[in-house]
Structures are given as C-alpha cells and as structure tokens.
C-alpha cells in the first residue's frame, strides 16, 4: 500500500472515530464576595472536545462606594478540563484562565491583567438546558484594591 493511500485511510478512520465537538453558552447571576458580597452577572460561551474545553467569559460586578467595594469587569479566556460525559446527570469541571479586568471605585479606575482558577458542575435539567454552578478565585495584579477576588454563581447553560 502506498504512503498516500495509508495516510488517506488513516485520516478517514480518525474522522469516523472522532467525537463531535460540543458547544455551550451560559447566562449567570452570582455574588462576588470580595471585600463585601455584591451582585455579579455575565455570560460565557465555549466549545470542547472530549476532556478539554475552551471558553470566553465576561462578568460584571456592581460597585458599593459605602463599603469600599469596587465594580469589577472581567474578560477572560479559560481552559476547562471536564468529564466527557455526565455522571448521574452531573458534569464536573476544573477551569483556569487569564484575561483583562477593569476595577472602578468612585473616581478611581484601574485596568490590568489577571488570572483565574476554579471549578464547578453542569447539571442536566431537560433537553439541552442545564444548570451551571461555578466558583472562581481571581488573582488580579498588586495594583488592584483587592488582589484576590472570589465569585460564586449559578446560571442557565444551553448545550448545542
């Protein structure tokens, strides 16, 4: 068998055995717990193949001038390691990522780069609709008012 034929046959077998890519989108509401609990909201859009997924996330946390809690906008690209299937309707995942953030408190504004780590679970509800519960710890630069922020959220996730 020629090399070209072997390569073509190998590519065909890989295409037939490859798992389809899955995508999903999440709208979420939650709480940023640093330094005081405040509402946070946002969305995430991602895609994955078996164990590895990628997503873009935007989150916006409200400001509370009285307690000195800044508004925080986060734009991040994340990598997810997740089970390739649900376990009793649950799909756990671990995530880490990096991106930009904007911190605002009264007249002070700071824009910089940060990292995040966390995890969560996607729970089957009905059809392609799932509940997503997520915890993240954000490591912001030292110039941030609070260099570490913690967020917990729940959201509706649509798998397509």
Q: What is the element layout, followed by pairings?
A:
Elements: H1 3-17, E1 22-32, E2 38-49, E3 52-61, E4 71-82, E5 90-105, E6 108-126, E7 129-140, E8 148-159
Antiparallel strand pairs: 1-2, 1-8, 2-3, 3-4, 4-5, 5-6, 6-7, 7-8
Description:
The chain is mainly beta and 160 residues long. The chain has one domain (20-159): Beta Barrel (Porin), CATH 2.40.160.20. The chain is built from one helix and eight strands, in the order H-E-E-E-E-E-E-E-E. Strand 5 and strand 6 form a beta hairpin. The model has no long low-confidence stretch (mean pLDDT 93).
- Estimate the mean pLDDT confidence: 93
- Lateral strand order in the biggest sheet: 1-2-3-4-5-6-7-8
Q: Give the radius of gyration.
A: 19 Å
The rough form would be described as elongated
How many beta-strand runs? Answer: 8
The DSSP helix count reads: 1
Biggest β-sheet description:
8 strands, antiparallel, barrel
Structural class: mainly beta
Distance between the termini: 40 Å
What order do the helices and strands follow? Answer: HEEEEEEEE
Strand content: over 45%
CATH topology: Porin
Notable characteristics:
160 residues; mainly beta; Porin; 8 strands; 65% strand; elongated
Please provide a brief summary of the model.
The chain has 160 residues and is mainly beta. It is built from one helix and eight strands; from the N terminus they run H-E-E-E-E-E-E-E-E.
